[in-house]
Structure formats: structure tokens, C-alpha cells
Amino acid sequence: MDLSLAASSSSFDLLLSNPHKFSLFQLNHDLSLKSKKLPTKSLFWRQNHPFRVRALNDDGFVLEDVPHLTDFLPHLPSYPNPLHHSQAYAIVKQTFVGPEDAVAQNIVVHKDSPRGVHFRRAGPREKVYFMPDEVRACIVTCGGLCPGINTVIREIVCGLNYMYGVDDVLGILGGYRGFYSKNTINLTPKVVNDIHKRGGTFLCTSRGGHDTNKIVDNIQDRRINQVYIIGGDGTQRGAALIYKEVEKRGLQVAVAGIPKTIDNDIAVIDKSFGFDTAVEEAQRAINAAHVEVESVENGVGIVKLMGRYSGFIAMFATLASRDVDCCLIPESPFYLEGPGGLFEFIEQRIKENGHMVIVIAEGAGQEYVAQDMQAADERDASGNRLLLDVGLWLTQEVKDHFTKVKKMEINMKYIDPTYMIRAIPSNASDNIYCSLLAQSAVHGAMAGYTGFTVGPVNSRHAYIPIARVTEAQNTVKVTDRMWARLLASTNQPSFLNSNEMLPM
């Protein structure tokens, strides 16, 4: 065994018997070690990624682990999980998740390929690292609205109380800046009983306002020891900074993230909460556009849906509707004029059917709009690029082309349901999903995990290093079968010139 990569055999015995109490170390000579075979049962930091990676054996099994409080508080005592005495969990054949249970990132593999990356399976552990009467938890929501936020809040509160007997939970009002500039609210099951029936966030939200030192100072001052953070990629990056500062100060504080984005652009996880609701609600807007354009001569309806960088809502809403003639997303460039362009397709479809419905994601065609409007690159408080209204721009372009160039009268209808979709309560599917997310976060924090986020990976909930869900955005792969299914459904052109190739 190569001692430059791995500890002694006795150290590995310690690792396997209690992985959380094994000290981590940084590889300082990655370049010189590239040609060396990775030893079995080694533990190391993946270069450029602040999360743990453990290779357990020679079949290519890799566990991307999450931090644990005992990594920097090695003498922290543990206690039997209160679920030992839970009537609800008494009926479960296997109440607790095993220490070696893992979830595979890739479920489809070749026969002789390595087993690949895995994450710790989420769920209750046999031991917890907090006494219930000593827990003071807090919940904060940041960023834009999304269906299901209130359900997550409710289920964190109820999960802590009903499963673990925790009755001291604070709601931080107004996003990250609420830690040091606003009051808190005491959250009990009674207080949050029916908030899942409302849209928005019961705790209010904001963008920006992240000051790590001030936030952790407030966490210390209020004696908070569990922090639940609901938000998108920027919010989760903030959660990672909070965890790092907590670790630096040696505080017994578990930091758990619940990823939120209506666009479904969070990496690793199967989908984000609120997405199913958004796709379902988008059907109403598409249906309205279809009714409008069917009722007039040469009707063209344009529906703009959410999707800053990822066109998942537009794609799935189009597939679900079957009334859409063309779907435009940021990942698949399109052009207006010339053979194979959008104008040609609109004219062809109007001649065939007498009407047409176009769904466009808000991030599609931004380069064209920016050129026409000579817009500057402006950003919001979260650092997101402010998008121009591609829906209004496309509506005007289509109208001008057919009335001025083609001398053809058309009836344009434009619908933008963005804020109507964002503001509604979550549907049944998302309510169940949000409950599972919240309970998984509670189980993880009580078990002493920290600096993690939760989500389904191949339909099994897992604890994922925060860096993994913020390092890249999930986007529609236009070389995959799902996009091909959409093209087959709408029969729209790919908008690719013969000399253009899609990136693999």
C-alpha cells in the first residue's frame, strides 16, 4: 500500500469502523501521483472540490461523502435515536439506514465499467449527536419564489417536533440578511399547520445580503445549533460558506441545505421541488394560447415560460401539452430568417393548420434581444444576469415580418404566466416530494452531518456535498432522447445549418 496516499492498516480499520472520526488530509502532489494506482480503502480530497471522496475497493466504487461534526469535534458524544421508541417507525422492518448504504449517481452502466460515484443514502441513523431538548434550530428561505417552499418549512418544523421531540425552532425573516437585521418568529406545528396551502414563503425572502461572519455571529448569539437553508445555487454556496465558518470556529452547528429552483437546473438531483407544479400550471397558459389562436384567422400564440439557463419547464410543458407547434430553449439556438428558420416554419404551419403556438423559455434568444436593444449586462442582487423580455421581442419580430415583409395579416397573442406560476401552492406530487426533502434534512442534521444538501438521486434520497450541486447547472441535453422526443412531437426544425454540429 502506498503510504503517500493512504494511512496505515490500523488507520483504515478505524476509518471503516467509524468513518466520521478519521482525519482528512489534502493531496499536495496531485501531478506526481497521477500515474500511481489508487489503493483500496483510501480517503482523500478530490482536487478543486471541497468534499470528501473515498474509494472503497478495486471495482471503481467511489463515495463522495459529506462532512460530519466529529470531523472537527472528535469527542462529540452520541445518543440513541428517539425513533427507537417511535410508534410510527415501529412498523418499519429496518428503521435505520445502514452506515454503508449508498446511492449510485449513474444507474445505467456497462457490464465491465467501474461502479462509479455514490452518495450517502439519506434517512434516520441509529445514533444522533443532539439531545432533543438542547436543539435550537432555525430555517431561512432565500432567492426567488417557488411552489413548495412553505411545505418544506412546515415539514422541517413538524419533523423535528414529531420525530425527535424538538420544540425550539426559529424562522429567520427576510432571507440571509434576516439573520442580523430582522426579527425571528417561533415556529411550532400549530403555527405552520396550514402554510402548505399558500404560495410564496411564510418567512419572506430576499436576494443577496449574505455576510458570513455576521450570520455566524448571530447563530452563536442566539445559540442556534441546526441551520436549515432553503434556496438556489447562490443560496447553497452561501450555506457552504456558513458551514466553513462554523467549522473554523469549532461550533456544534449542523448546516443543512434544501436546494430550490423552479427551473430544475440543480445538478446531480433528479429534479427540484416546484418543477412538477410549474409544468402543470404552465398547461393552463398553453391551453389559453391554443384556444385564442384557434378562434381567429392566422392566429399565432407565444407563451413565455421560466428557464433562465435551462429549458426544462418549456420542454416538459410542451411534451405534456401536445398543442405546441414549436419549443425554443436556451440550450438549442434558433434563427429567424432564411431556409429552415423560424419565420419559414411559422408560415408553413399557419398554411397547414391556420394557427400556431410557440413556447419559449425566458433565456432563449437573449443574444438577439441584446443586439436589438443594445442592452448592458446587468445583474440582480444574487448575481444572476437580468434577462430581457424575449417573449415581447419575438412577438414584435413575428408581427413585423408577416405584416411588413410577407404582407400577411396575422393575429398575435402573447401570454407570460411567470409570476402566476411561481406564486401558487405546490401540487400533490410536489407536496410529497417536499415532505421527503424536509424529513431527510432533519434526519441528516440530527445524525451530525453538516455542510450537505439533500435530494433524490435515481429516485433514492441522498446526502450530497453542497459543492456538487453548485459546481455546474443542469441543462437540457439536446443530444439526448428527451429532446428528440420533443422534436418528434412538435415536428419542428432543429434550426441547425448543415455545417453546424451540436456539442456532445
Question: Would you give an account of this structure?
Answer:
This protein has 504 residues and is α/β, with parallel strands linked by helices. 33% of the residues lie in helices and 17% in strands. The chain contains 15 helices and 18 strands. The chain has helices spanning 9-17, 30-33, 149-164, 178-181, 212-221, 233-249, 275-294, 312-321, 342-353, 366-373, 390-405, 418-422, 428-446, 466-470, 481-490; strands at 42-45, 52-55, 61-65, 79-80, 102-104, 116-121, 127-128, 137-141, 169-172, 184-186, 226-231, 254-259, 299-305, 326-328, 355-361, 411-415, 452-457, 460-465. The strands form three sheets. Strands 1, 2, 3, 5, 6, 8, 9, 10, 11, 12, 17 and 18 form a twelve-stranded mixed beta sheet that branches. Strands 14-15-13-16 form a four-stranded parallel beta sheet, sandwiched between helices. The longest helix has 20 residues, at 275-294. The radius of gyration is 25 Å and the shape is elongated. Catalyzes the phosphorylation of D-fructose 6-phosphate to fructose 1,6-bisphosphate by ATP, the first committing step of glycolysis. It catalyses: beta-D-fructose 6-phosphate + ATP = beta-D-fructose 1,6-bisphosphate + ADP + H(+). Residues 137-443 form the Phosphofructokinase domain. The record marks 234 as: Important for substrate specificity. Belongs to the phosphofructokinase type A (PFKA) family. PPi-dependent PFK group II subfamily. Atypical ATP-dependent clade 'X' sub-subfamily.
